[in-house]
Protein backbone atom coordinates (compact mmCIF):
# COMPACT_ATOMS: atom_id res chain seq x y z
CA UNK A 1 0.00 0.00 0.00
CA UNK A 2 1.27 3.42 -0.95
CA UNK A 3 -0.46 6.75 -1.62
CA UNK A 4 0.22 10.49 -1.63
CA UNK A 5 -2.46 13.03 -0.71
CA UNK A 6 -3.04 16.66 0.27
CA UNK A 7 -2.80 16.81 4.03
CA UNK A 8 -5.66 19.30 4.64
CA UNK A 9 -8.14 17.20 2.66
CA UNK A 10 -7.08 14.06 4.50
CA UNK A 11 -7.33 15.76 7.92
CA UNK A 12 -10.94 16.85 7.25
CA UNK A 13 -11.99 13.25 6.57
CA UNK A 14 -9.85 11.93 9.41
CA UNK A 15 -11.58 14.28 11.88
CA UNK A 16 -14.99 12.94 10.82
CA UNK A 17 -14.01 9.30 11.22
CA UNK A 18 -12.28 9.91 14.56
CA UNK A 19 -15.64 10.83 16.11
CA UNK A 20 -16.41 7.10 16.20
CA UNK A 21 -13.06 5.98 17.65
CA UNK A 22 -12.72 5.60 21.41
CA UNK A 23 -9.63 4.78 23.44
CA UNK A 24 -11.85 3.04 26.04
CA UNK A 25 -13.19 0.23 23.85
CA UNK A 26 -12.92 -3.39 25.02
CA UNK A 27 -11.95 -4.49 21.48
CA UNK A 28 -8.31 -3.36 21.00
CA UNK A 29 -8.43 -3.11 17.18
CA UNK A 30 -11.27 -0.54 17.45
CA UNK A 31 -8.82 1.99 18.90
CA UNK A 32 -7.40 2.04 15.38
CA UNK A 33 -8.30 3.71 12.08
CA UNK A 34 -8.83 1.39 9.12
CA UNK A 35 -7.39 2.53 5.77
CA UNK A 36 -8.56 0.57 2.73
CA UNK A 37 -6.77 1.79 -0.40
CA UNK A 38 -8.11 0.61 -3.78
CA UNK A 39 -6.94 1.58 -7.27
CA UNK A 40 -9.02 4.78 -7.29
CA UNK A 41 -10.02 5.69 -3.71
CA UNK A 42 -9.21 5.53 0.01
CA UNK A 43 -11.89 4.35 2.44
CA UNK A 44 -11.37 5.48 6.06
CA UNK A 45 -13.31 3.63 8.78
CA UNK A 46 -13.65 4.20 12.52
CA UNK A 47 -15.92 2.44 15.02
CA UNK A 48 -16.55 1.98 18.74
CA UNK A 49 -19.16 -0.77 18.15
CA UNK A 50 -22.03 1.68 18.90
CA UNK A 51 -21.16 4.20 16.17
CA UNK A 52 -19.30 3.44 12.93
CA UNK A 53 -18.23 6.09 10.40
CA UNK A 54 -16.92 5.39 6.92
CA UNK A 55 -15.82 8.05 4.43
CA UNK A 56 -14.29 8.04 0.98
CA UNK A 57 -11.48 10.05 -0.63
CA UNK A 58 -11.74 9.76 -4.40
CA UNK A 59 -8.67 9.98 -6.67
CA UNK A 60 -10.88 11.44 -9.44
CA UNK A 61 -11.45 14.61 -7.37
CA UNK A 62 -8.56 16.91 -8.25
CA UNK A 63 -8.90 18.86 -4.99
CA UNK A 64 -7.82 15.76 -3.06
CA UNK A 65 -4.41 15.64 -4.77
CA UNK A 66 -4.57 11.86 -4.36
CA UNK A 67 -2.28 9.53 -6.26
CA UNK A 68 -2.34 5.82 -5.47
CA UNK A 69 0.82 3.88 -6.26
CA UNK A 70 -0.14 0.59 -4.62
CA UNK A 71 -3.50 -0.62 -3.19
CA UNK A 72 -3.70 -2.31 0.21
CA UNK A 73 -5.22 -1.99 3.67
CA UNK A 74 -4.11 -1.61 7.27
CA UNK A 75 -5.34 -0.51 10.71
CA UNK A 76 -3.21 2.23 12.30
CA UNK A 77 -3.35 3.51 15.92
CA UNK A 78 -5.79 6.40 15.47
CA UNK A 79 -4.46 8.70 18.18
CA UNK A 80 -0.79 8.57 17.12
CA UNK A 81 -1.56 8.60 13.41
CA UNK A 82 -3.82 11.65 13.72
CA UNK A 83 -1.28 13.59 15.82
CA UNK A 84 1.47 12.80 13.29
CA UNK A 85 -0.59 13.81 10.25
CA UNK A 86 -1.63 17.13 11.84
CA UNK A 87 1.98 18.08 12.60
CA UNK A 88 3.64 17.16 9.31
CA UNK A 89 5.51 20.08 7.71
CA UNK A 90 4.45 20.03 4.04
CA UNK A 91 1.14 20.39 2.17
CA UNK A 92 1.17 16.77 1.01
CA UNK A 93 2.09 13.49 2.66
CA UNK A 94 2.87 9.92 1.64
CA UNK A 95 1.73 6.80 3.52
CA UNK A 96 3.36 3.48 2.69
CA UNK A 97 3.43 -0.03 4.19
CA UNK A 98 7.12 -0.91 4.26
CA UNK A 99 7.48 -4.22 6.08
CA UNK A 100 4.67 -6.49 7.33
CA UNK A 101 2.40 -4.02 9.12
CA UNK A 102 5.01 -1.30 9.59
CA UNK A 103 3.83 1.93 8.01
CA UNK A 104 5.93 4.90 6.94
CA UNK A 105 4.41 8.39 6.96
CA UNK A 106 6.50 11.06 5.28
CA UNK A 107 6.19 14.73 4.40
CA UNK A 108 9.11 16.93 3.37
CA UNK A 109 12.07 16.08 5.60
CA UNK A 110 9.90 14.43 8.31
CA UNK A 111 9.48 10.67 8.37
CA UNK A 112 7.65 8.49 10.93
CA UNK A 113 7.32 4.73 11.10
CA UNK A 114 4.49 3.25 13.19
CA UNK A 115 3.22 -0.29 13.72
CA UNK A 116 -0.16 -1.20 12.30
CA UNK A 117 -2.53 -4.18 12.56
CA UNK A 118 -3.98 -6.62 10.04
CA UNK A 119 -7.10 -4.98 8.51
CA UNK A 120 -8.67 -8.42 7.94
CA UNK A 121 -9.27 -8.62 11.72
CA UNK A 122 -11.27 -5.36 11.74
CA UNK A 123 -15.02 -5.98 12.33
CA UNK A 124 -17.26 -5.66 9.27
CA UNK A 125 -19.68 -2.76 9.10
CA UNK A 126 -23.38 -3.64 9.41
CA UNK A 127 -25.28 -4.49 6.22
CA UNK A 128 -28.69 -2.86 5.99
CA UNK A 129 -31.61 -4.62 4.32
CA UNK A 130 -34.24 -2.89 2.22
CA UNK A 131 -34.12 0.11 -0.06
CA UNK A 132 -36.56 2.37 1.80
CA UNK A 133 -34.95 5.69 2.71
CA UNK A 134 -35.94 9.01 4.26
CA UNK A 135 -34.39 12.18 2.84
CA UNK A 136 -34.21 15.34 4.93
CA UNK A 137 -32.65 18.76 4.61
CA UNK A 138 -29.39 18.82 6.61
CA UNK A 139 -30.31 22.11 8.32
CA UNK A 140 -33.77 20.85 9.32
CA UNK A 141 -32.36 17.58 10.66
CA UNK A 142 -29.62 19.36 12.62
CA UNK A 143 -32.24 21.65 14.19
CA UNK A 144 -34.50 18.68 15.01
CA UNK A 145 -31.61 16.96 16.83
CA UNK A 146 -30.65 20.07 18.83
CA UNK A 147 -34.27 20.67 19.86
CA UNK A 148 -34.89 17.14 21.16
CA UNK A 149 -31.55 15.72 22.33
CA UNK A 150 -31.50 18.20 25.26
CA UNK A 151 -34.20 16.12 26.98
CA UNK A 152 -32.56 12.68 26.77
CA UNK A 153 -31.64 11.06 30.07
CA UNK A 154 -28.04 10.72 31.21
CA UNK A 155 -29.03 7.96 33.66
CA UNK A 156 -28.12 4.46 32.45
CA UNK A 157 -30.68 2.96 34.90
CA UNK A 158 -33.33 3.44 32.19
CA UNK A 159 -31.35 2.95 28.96
CA UNK A 160 -34.39 3.50 26.73
CA UNK A 161 -34.59 7.15 27.86
CA UNK A 162 -30.98 7.84 26.77
CA UNK A 163 -32.25 7.90 23.19
CA UNK A 164 -34.54 9.98 20.99
CA UNK A 165 -37.70 8.20 19.82
CA UNK A 166 -38.23 8.62 16.06
CA UNK A 167 -41.57 7.62 14.54
CA UNK A 168 -42.18 7.92 10.80
CA UNK A 169 -45.54 7.34 9.14
CA UNK A 170 -46.11 8.44 5.56
CA UNK A 171 -44.88 12.05 5.37
CA UNK A 172 -45.09 12.59 9.15
CA UNK A 173 -41.82 12.50 11.11
CA UNK A 174 -41.90 12.90 14.90
CA UNK A 175 -38.96 12.98 17.32
CA UNK A 176 -39.47 12.93 21.08
CA UNK A 177 -37.15 12.68 24.09
CA UNK A 178 -37.76 12.67 27.82
CA UNK A 179 -35.75 12.04 30.99
CA UNK A 180 -39.00 11.88 33.05
CA UNK A 181 -38.42 15.47 34.34
CA UNK A 182 -38.84 17.19 30.98
CA UNK A 183 -39.90 16.36 27.44
CA UNK A 184 -39.17 17.72 23.99
CA UNK A 185 -41.25 16.84 20.94
CA UNK A 186 -40.79 18.03 17.37
CA UNK A 187 -42.84 17.11 14.29
CA UNK A 188 -41.89 17.81 10.69
CA UNK A 189 -43.48 17.03 7.36
CA UNK A 190 -41.23 15.08 5.01
CA UNK A 191 -40.83 16.39 1.45
CA UNK A 192 -42.15 13.06 0.16
CA UNK A 193 -44.28 10.36 1.81
CA UNK A 194 -42.53 7.22 2.96
CA UNK A 195 -43.95 3.81 2.11
CA UNK A 196 -42.71 2.25 5.36
CA UNK A 197 -43.72 2.87 8.95
CA UNK A 198 -40.87 3.14 11.45
CA UNK A 199 -40.61 3.32 15.20
CA UNK A 200 -36.98 3.46 16.42
CA UNK A 201 -34.93 4.80 19.32
CA UNK A 202 -31.53 6.29 18.44
CA UNK A 203 -28.97 6.92 21.24
CA UNK A 204 -28.66 10.62 22.06
CA UNK A 205 -24.84 10.38 21.95
CA UNK A 206 -24.99 9.12 18.35
CA UNK A 207 -27.24 12.00 17.30
CA UNK A 208 -24.96 14.59 18.93
CA UNK A 209 -21.95 13.28 16.94
CA UNK A 210 -24.02 13.12 13.75
CA UNK A 211 -25.20 16.70 14.25
CA UNK A 212 -21.60 17.93 14.51
CA UNK A 213 -20.87 16.40 11.11
CA UNK A 214 -23.73 18.09 9.27
CA UNK A 215 -22.29 21.20 7.66
CA UNK A 216 -22.83 23.51 4.70
CA UNK A 217 -21.47 20.86 2.33
CA UNK A 218 -24.22 18.39 3.38
CA UNK A 219 -27.45 19.92 2.04
CA UNK A 220 -29.35 16.64 2.57
CA UNK A 221 -29.21 13.71 4.97
CA UNK A 222 -30.42 10.30 3.81
CA UNK A 223 -31.62 7.95 6.55
CA UNK A 224 -32.05 4.17 6.22
CA UNK A 225 -33.32 1.94 9.01
CA UNK A 226 -32.88 -1.79 9.59
CA UNK A 227 -33.78 -4.05 12.51
CA UNK A 228 -31.04 -2.90 14.90
CA UNK A 229 -29.06 -0.26 12.97
CA UNK A 230 -29.66 3.10 11.33
CA UNK A 231 -27.50 4.50 8.54
CA UNK A 232 -27.21 8.22 7.79
CA UNK A 233 -25.53 9.19 4.53
CA UNK A 234 -23.97 12.67 4.28
CA UNK A 235 -22.43 13.05 0.82
CA UNK A 236 -19.56 10.55 0.68
CA UNK A 237 -19.67 9.77 4.41
CA UNK A 238 -21.72 6.96 6.00
CA UNK A 239 -22.65 7.18 9.70
CA UNK A 240 -23.96 3.99 11.33
CA UNK A 241 -25.52 3.82 14.79
CA UNK A 242 -26.99 0.96 16.75
CA UNK A 243 -30.63 1.32 17.82
CA UNK A 244 -31.80 0.99 21.42
CA UNK A 245 -33.97 -2.05 22.10
CA UNK A 246 -37.28 -1.86 23.92
CA UNK A 247 -40.53 0.09 23.88
CA UNK A 248 -40.42 3.85 24.41
CA UNK A 249 -43.05 5.07 26.92
CA UNK A 250 -46.23 6.62 25.54
CA UNK A 251 -45.36 10.31 25.94
CA UNK A 252 -48.50 11.74 24.30
CA UNK A 253 -50.49 11.29 27.54
CA UNK A 254 -47.96 13.46 29.43
CA UNK A 255 -48.79 16.60 27.43
CA UNK A 256 -51.67 18.59 29.00
CA UNK A 257 -54.63 19.24 26.69
CA UNK A 258 -55.85 22.33 28.60
CA UNK A 259 -54.39 25.13 30.72
CA UNK A 260 -55.57 27.54 33.41
CA UNK A 261 -52.84 30.21 33.05
CA UNK A 262 -51.00 31.31 29.90
CA UNK A 263 -48.17 33.79 29.36
CA UNK A 264 -46.67 35.04 26.11
CA UNK A 265 -42.99 35.97 26.12
CA UNK A 266 -40.14 36.85 23.83
CA UNK A 267 -37.96 33.71 24.24
CA UNK A 268 -34.53 35.47 24.40
CA UNK A 269 -35.83 38.02 26.95
CA UNK A 270 -37.24 35.28 29.20
CA UNK A 271 -34.01 33.27 28.81
CA UNK A 272 -31.93 36.25 29.95
CA UNK A 273 -34.12 36.68 33.06
CA UNK A 274 -33.89 32.95 33.93
CA UNK A 275 -30.10 33.12 33.54
CA UNK A 276 -29.96 36.03 35.99
CA UNK A 277 -32.19 34.25 38.52
CA UNK A 278 -30.15 31.03 38.27
CA UNK A 279 -26.92 32.83 39.22
CA UNK A 280 -27.99 32.48 42.85
CA UNK A 281 -30.15 29.34 42.61
CA UNK A 282 -27.06 27.39 41.50
CA UNK A 283 -25.47 28.16 44.85
CA UNK A 284 -28.27 26.48 46.80
CA UNK A 285 -28.71 22.73 47.17
CA UNK A 286 -32.05 22.43 45.39
CA UNK A 287 -31.36 24.77 42.39
CA UNK A 288 -34.91 26.09 42.11
CA UNK A 289 -36.35 29.30 40.64
CA UNK A 290 -39.87 30.50 41.50
CA UNK A 291 -42.37 32.22 39.23
CA UNK A 292 -45.25 34.18 40.81
CA UNK A 293 -48.08 35.21 38.44
CA UNK A 294 -50.77 37.74 39.40
CA UNK A 295 -52.95 37.92 36.27
CA UNK A 296 -55.22 40.73 37.42
CA UNK A 297 -52.29 43.15 37.79
CA UNK A 298 -50.36 41.60 34.89
CA UNK A 299 -47.54 41.07 37.39
CA UNK A 300 -45.03 38.27 36.90
CA UNK A 301 -42.13 38.01 39.32
CA UNK A 302 -39.24 35.57 39.06
CA UNK A 303 -37.05 34.93 42.08
CA UNK A 304 -34.08 32.82 43.09
CA UNK A 305 -32.70 32.26 46.56
CA UNK A 306 -29.55 30.86 48.12
CA UNK A 307 -29.41 30.89 51.94
CA UNK A 308 -25.61 31.23 51.83
CA UNK A 309 -25.36 33.99 49.22
CA UNK A 310 -28.58 35.97 49.00
CA UNK A 311 -31.61 36.29 46.76
CA UNK A 312 -32.70 37.81 43.44
CA UNK A 313 -36.09 39.09 42.33
CA UNK A 314 -37.09 40.52 38.95
CA UNK A 315 -40.36 41.62 37.41
CA UNK A 316 -40.92 40.15 33.95
CA UNK A 317 -42.48 41.89 31.00
CA UNK A 318 -44.89 39.47 29.28
CA UNK A 319 -46.56 40.17 25.92
CA UNK A 320 -49.81 38.71 27.27
CA UNK A 321 -51.09 37.30 30.58
CA UNK A 322 -54.28 35.28 30.90
CA UNK A 323 -56.00 32.98 33.41
CA UNK A 324 -55.60 32.26 37.13
CA UNK A 325 -52.98 33.46 39.61
CA UNK A 326 -50.21 30.93 40.17
CA UNK A 327 -46.95 30.30 42.00
CA UNK A 328 -44.73 27.61 40.54
CA UNK A 329 -41.12 26.47 41.07
CA UNK A 330 -38.87 24.75 38.53
CA UNK A 331 -35.30 23.79 37.67
CA UNK A 332 -33.86 26.82 35.80
CA UNK A 333 -31.41 24.65 33.80
CA UNK A 334 -34.29 22.74 32.19
CA UNK A 335 -35.99 26.04 31.40
CA UNK A 336 -32.81 27.50 29.85
CA UNK A 337 -32.29 24.45 27.61
CA UNK A 338 -35.92 24.63 26.49
CA UNK A 339 -35.80 28.37 25.75
CA UNK A 340 -32.54 28.13 23.77
CA UNK A 341 -34.17 25.57 21.48
CA UNK A 342 -36.74 28.18 20.33
CA UNK A 343 -34.18 30.71 19.10
CA UNK A 344 -35.39 34.24 18.33
CA UNK A 345 -39.14 33.77 18.57
CA UNK A 346 -42.26 34.46 20.63
CA UNK A 347 -43.45 31.62 22.88
CA UNK A 348 -46.57 30.68 24.79
CA UNK A 349 -46.07 29.19 28.28
CA UNK A 350 -49.13 27.27 29.56
CA UNK A 351 -49.71 26.13 33.15
CA UNK A 352 -52.42 23.91 34.70
CA UNK A 353 -51.39 23.93 38.39
CA UNK A 354 -48.38 24.42 40.68
CA UNK A 355 -47.59 20.69 40.63
CA UNK A 356 -48.50 19.73 37.06
CA UNK A 357 -46.07 19.89 34.10
CA UNK A 358 -46.18 23.10 32.07
CA UNK A 359 -45.54 23.54 28.35
CA UNK A 360 -43.69 25.96 26.08
CA UNK A 361 -44.64 26.27 22.41
CA UNK A 362 -43.77 28.80 19.69
CA UNK A 363 -46.70 31.10 18.95
CA UNK A 364 -46.24 30.57 15.19
CA UNK A 365 -46.04 26.76 15.10
CA UNK A 366 -47.84 25.42 18.17
CA UNK A 367 -48.71 22.00 16.78
CA UNK A 368 -45.23 20.92 15.70
CA UNK A 369 -42.90 21.82 18.55
CA UNK A 370 -43.42 21.51 22.28
CA UNK A 371 -41.21 21.57 25.37
CA UNK A 372 -42.60 20.27 28.66
CA UNK A 373 -41.09 20.77 32.13
CA UNK A 374 -42.12 19.18 35.43
CA UNK A 375 -42.21 21.70 38.31
CA UNK A 376 -40.37 21.19 41.59
CA UNK A 377 -42.33 20.67 44.80
CA UNK A 378 -40.93 23.12 47.37
CA UNK A 379 -43.16 22.31 50.33
Automatic annotation (TrEMBL):
The keyword Cytoplasm applies. It is found in: Cytoplasm. It comes from the Bacteria. InterPro entries: DNA_clamp_sf, DNA_polIII_beta, DNA_polIII_beta_C, DNA_polIII_beta_cen, DNA_polIII_beta_N. Keywords: Cytoplasm, DNA replication, DNA-binding, DNA-directed DNA polymerase, Nucleotidyltransferase, Transferase. Residues 253-376 form the DNA polymerase III beta sliding clamp C-terminal domain. The keyword Transferase applies. Pfam families: DNA_pol3_beta, DNA_pol3_beta_2, DNA_pol3_beta_3. GO terms for molecular function: DNA-directed DNA polymerase activity. Its main location: cytoplasm. Residues 1-126 form the DNA polymerase III beta sliding clamp N-terminal domain. Residues 135-250 form the DNA polymerase III beta sliding clamp central domain. Forms a ring-shaped head-to-tail homodimer around DNA. Confers DNA tethering and processivity to DNA polymerases and other proteins. Acts as a clamp, forming a ring around DNA (a reaction catalyzed by the clamp-loading complex) which diffuses in an ATP-independent manner freely and bidirectionally along dsDNA. Initially characterized for its ability to contact the catalytic subunit of DNA polymerase III (Pol III), a complex, multichain enzyme responsible for most of the replicative synthesis in bacteria; Pol III exhibits 3'-5' exonuclease proofreading activity. Belongs to the beta sliding clamp family. This is Beta sliding clamp. The gene is dnaN.
